[in-house]
Amino acid sequence: MTSKTMRAAGLITLGLAAAGCSTTQPPTRTLAYQQPEPQPDPRIARMYGAEEDQGWRIPAVDPQQIEPRNIRQVVDYRTDETPGTLVVDPHARFLYLVMENGKAMRYGVGVGKAGLEFTGTGTIARKAAWPRWTPTPNMIEREPDKYGGDLRHGMAGGIDNPLGARALYLYKDGRDTLFRIHGTNQEWSIGKAVSSGCIRMLNQDVIDLNRRVPAGSKIVVVGIDPSAAGTPNGDPTS
């Protein structure tokens, strides 16, 4: 082999070696049957992102844990109740804030287990941010192992407190009904009957509701016939 031929062979060998060390990858092929990654709902990102509130960090809502129907939204709503009234429908698992012109702000909620719900009309007598929580005597009696220990004396407000970021207290005829509308970090519980009688909302939603509803507002918790208070009409408008 001549020196010229040997040099050519060496260059070919170096070229192959260099090609073997290359980090260049062939273009990724998208298979026809491959499903695209689901994109998060921008409404959830906008309304339910993480936020700081009075020294506490409220985590973002996991989009996989909330149904689209439970996202805060304005809906058509027929009712004889005046604007500013709260209507809770435990059967549909919604809370409505009645607005002008046949509209309502609708929130998805978690409700009390069967037999634990309050029904009737009352007043939001007071509101509290990051409230202290104490189990009721009935809760202690029903589940002494869960509530009868140190918890019977209550828990200071905070991100792990069962009442969450805000609580609205329902009174009837001037007396505390022990019925609360309150926040929760357990987004999986929205739309379900899991609580000890109160109405739970996502922390971001209960903060929004608290801003909109002054103390003294009327609240209606409907019974078997929700049409007595109001009827949804059509699709959400936003």
Task: Give a verbal description of the structure.
Pfam families: YkuD (PF03734). Residues 1-19 form the signal peptide. InterPro entries: LD-transpeptidase (IPR050979), LD_TPept_cat_dom (IPR005490), Transpep_catalytic_dom (IPR038063). The chain contains five helices and 14 strands. With 238 residues, it is of the alpha+beta class. Strands 12-10-9-8-13-4-5-6-3-14 form a ten-stranded mixed beta sheet. A two-stranded antiparallel ribbon has the order 1-2.
β content, as a range? 25-35%
N-to-C CA distance = 81 Å
Q: What is the rounded Rg? A: 28 Å
- Tell me, briefly, the overall form: globular
What is the chain-wise order of helices and strands? HHEEEEEEEEHHEEEEHEE
| Count of individual beta strands | 14
Any low-confidence stretches, pLDDT <50, length ≥5?
Answer: 10-24, 234-238
Structural class: alpha+beta
Biggest sheet details:
10 strands, mixed
| Helical coverage, percent range | 10-25%
If strands are numbered along the chain, what order do they take across the biggest sheet? 12-10-9-8-13-4-5-6-3-14
